[in-house]
Specification:
By secondary structure, this protein is an alpha/beta fold. The protein contains 26 helices and 23 strands. β5 and β6 form a beta hairpin.
């Protein structure tokens, strides 16, 4: 027999090998009962199965892994497309091969502890079908939104079915765990967000939506008190996929977060129908209503499923945190201290919003010592910021300045007022000191007069002593001549006069010089004694810092001015005392002990009503103010009320009605302090001259008397001292 060529022999061997392998595998079965050829054949991976792997393998996958899977998935689609094209040209039916990224998916699948059977049976749930109510809601209302599916453990296949129903839209898928719900990127806010939540028992999701575990847990720092993650502005579709042990729609709608979520639908199966429930915003009693019913592949009513509920809140209760800080918020109280009426610019704003949106207000008072709130080193706040940040109130309002530090924690509405930061200091006080008799002349004038006195006394002595016609013996004494010149300055010269021309000529010019000096001094002295000289007013930050006064103000100013380029402002921050009472501190300002920093309207009101006596203010508003600040409401992060209120706030600001609200507060305050306003002003022109204005004269007399006494003692000592023996 002729031996075949080696290549031909190898081809025949491979043919018989594959032939017998085919018959052997055809009769062998898998322990699960499925044909082994279906388990191991690369044709067995259906489109449902591939998406199952994709769903579970990318859960928790890091960025590098996700990119690797995405690249492999794209390569597989391109390869499958070429395979189908080739099959169509051959006239055979193209079969779907096992994806190229199978090894990656298997690795991720095993790392997650999940083993998926080869043939996946997707449940037939009408809620999640392609022509079901969930897909209908998504296609009509959520097409332009960023979509996310949250599913409970055990509902993987339902999440897969829902994804296939809305495969034409991009979507993120999350397994509901405490870690996922407390991850910031799970609730990242976009222009439009849609969350589809698949619930069976719902314990983990309900605990998160209740938020009570945030408020009732004591905390020592930011790590012990996790921030609350929720998106009140998103559109939620809650799907109750099970009939057993599933939470009732009313239980879900009554959860703390869902009571504040504007767009909420809860889909519940009821026989062959699907009931679509929605919530009533901020309601304390009836929290749910039937929005529509899905029957026969369509909604029966065809009404808007996500209406604008914030346009009319139907008497819902909104909690407003505030405190008294005129003219923004002012209280009229009865004899027992109970609040009868609330007034002020900010109070007018929130009352106007309540009327426009038809909601009721429950006021929550903030401690007057905490006011707007201070952030501590452990990351927590007190005061109004605490109430809003931890959602004890829905709105915080009371002259709240917008700034970066607060913006990082809460939401701000549009500003409805603008106000600069200013300061008050003591008004100028009368200058009372011993220098009053010296004030008519400047110091250089006094020095010139003193030199003239010395020169003139010496000249008179020389002329009287060395003249050919000697004057009287008194003029030949130096002390007498100085006394004579002093008498000329006081317009009371001594009776003895010169007899000869040289002395007369010299003394005549001295008398004329003295007359002019004394007349100018007398006239100016009358002016200084009749008009009270005031201290230098404090008008600038630099003057305030260098005045030696203590400076008070809220701790907010420290954060605002700590990066100021001016050294004077930085010095003010170093001296600022935040633990001051906003009411009694003005008494210390009036006494000349304090300066105080606050917004201009507040300072003007206090100055005009409490510290103005008959038109004269005892505290002074500095002329140099700092930058203007926006005043706005603060709300919890992602609150649905923010955008709803902004339009109305713009209308309120443009109407100019806030000026009227401010004037009402000013009138009210002036009535409280009417006795001060009507008190007659103290006119300095009619006041008698006091001891303080003349104390310098008494000092001069006292010093002269003491000096004369010592001279007298010295003379007596010299007279009693025995002289030497006479020759």
């Amino acid at each position: 027999m002729t031996r075949l060529a080696p290549v031909r022999e190898a081809q025949i061997t491979l043919f018989f090998f594959f032939f017998f392998s085919f018959f052997l595998d055809a009769g062998r079965t898998h322990p699960s009962g499925v044909s082994a050829s279906l388990v191991e054949s690369p044709v067995t991976t259906t489109s449902f199965e591939e998406d199952w792997y994709e769903l579970n393998s990318t859960e928790g996958c890091d960025r590098g892994c996700a990119e690797e899977v995405a690249d492999a998935r794209g390569a597989n689609r391109r390869r499958q497309s070429r395979h189908n094209d080739l099959a169509s040209t051959r006239g055979t039916k193209g079969s779907r091969s096992k994806p190229q990224n199978q090894h990656i998916l298997e690795r991720r699948r095993r790392s997650n502890g999940m083993m998926v059977p080869a043939n996946i049976s997707v449940p037939n749930n009408g809620l999640l079908a392609r022509n079901g109510p969930v897909a209908a809601v998504v296609n009509v209302y959520l097409r332009q939104c960023t979509l996310a599916i949250f599913y409970e453990e055990g509902l993987d296949l339902y999440a897969l079915q829902l994804r296939k129903s809305i495969a034409h839209l991009p979507v993120k898928i999350y397994l509901i765990t405490p870690e996922t719900l407390l991850r910031e990127d799970s609730w990242k806010m976009n222009q439009c967000d849609g969350y589809i939540v698949l619930l069976s028992k719902g314990a983990t999701f309900i605990q998160h939506a209740a938020t009570d575990h945030y408020f009732n847990t004591p905390y020592d720092g930011p790590d012990d008190h996790p921030p609350h993650y929720w998106n009140y502005r998103a559109k939620f579709v809650i799907v109750l996929v099970s009939d057993n042990n599933v939470p009732l729609p009313v239980d879900i709608a009554s959860l703390y977060n869902f009571k504040k979520t504007e767009n909420l639908l809860i889909l519940q199966k009821s026989g062959a129908h699907v009931l679509v429930w929605t919530n009533i915003l901020y309601s304390e009693h009836s929290v749910i209503t039937l929005a529509d019913t899905w029957r026969g592949g369509a909604f029966i009513r065809g009404t808007e499923l996500f209406p604008n509920k914030l346009k009319n809140l139907k008497g819902a209760i909104i909690k407003v945190g505030t405190f008294e800080h005129a003219p923004s918020v002012t209280y009229q109280r009865d004899a027992d201290g109970q609040i009868l009426k609330r007034m002020g610019v900010d109070m007018g704003v929130v009352l106007a919003l309540a009327q426009a949106k038809t909601f009721r207000i429950e006021f929550v008072e903030v401690s007057s010592s905490e006011k707007w709130g201070t952030k501590y080193r452990n990351g927590t706040w007190d005061g109004l910021m605490n109430k809003v940040l931890y959602e004890h109130v829905d709105i915080g309002i009371c002259n709240v300045f917008t700034d970066h530090f607060r913006w990082m924690e809460v939401d701000f509405s549009y500003p409805y007022n603008f106000m600069p930061a200013c300061f008050v200091a003591p008004s100028p006080k009368p200058v009372i000191n011993w220098q009053s008799p010296l004030l008519p002349f400047a110091w250089d004038t006094w020095i010139s007069i003193g030199i003239s006195l010395l020169v003139c006394g010496a000249l008179v002595y020389l002329v009287a002593s060395f003249s050919h016609s000697p004057e009287a013996r008194d003029f030949q004494s130096l002390s007498y001549n100085y006394l004579y010149i002093v008498g000329a300055f006081t317009v009371h010269p001594l009776t003895l006069g010169p007899r000869f021309p040289p002395s007369r000529l010299l003394l005549g010019f001295i008398w004329l010089f003295s007359l002019i000096i004394s007349t100018g001094y007398s006239a100016n002295l009358v002016a200084f004694l009749s008009v009270v000289r005031m201290s230098q007013p404090i008008d600038t930050i630099e003057q305030l810092v260098s005045s030696g006064l203590r400076i008070g103000g809220h701790s907010f100013w420290k954060t605002q001015f700590s990066a100021a380029p001016e050294q004077a402002v930085l010095d003010l921050v170093d001296k600022l005392e935040s633990d001051v009472d906003f009411f009694t501190v003005f008494n210390d300002v009036e006494k000349g002990k304090f300066g105080f920093v606050e917004n201009q309207e507040f300072l003007q009101l206090q100055q005009g009503s409490r510290f103005t006596y008959g038109g004269i203010a005892t505290i002074r508003l500095g002329r140099q103010c700092l930058i203007n600040f926006n005043i706005a409401m603060i709300l919890p992060r992602k609150s649905p009320l923010t955008n709803s209120f902004n339009t109305d706030l713009l209308r309120i600001y443009e109407s100019g009605i806030m000026k009227k609200w401010q004037e009402e507060v000013v009138v009210f305050f002036r009535q409280q302090y009417l006795s001060k306003l009507l008190r007659a002003p103290s006119d300095s022109r009619s006041k008698p001259i006091g001891l303080g204005q003349l104390q310098g004269i008494f000092y001069f007399v006292g010093i002269s008397s003491v000096l004369g006494f010592f001279i007298l003692i010295a003379e007596n000592i010299m007279k009693t001292t025995p002289s030497g023996p006479s020759p």
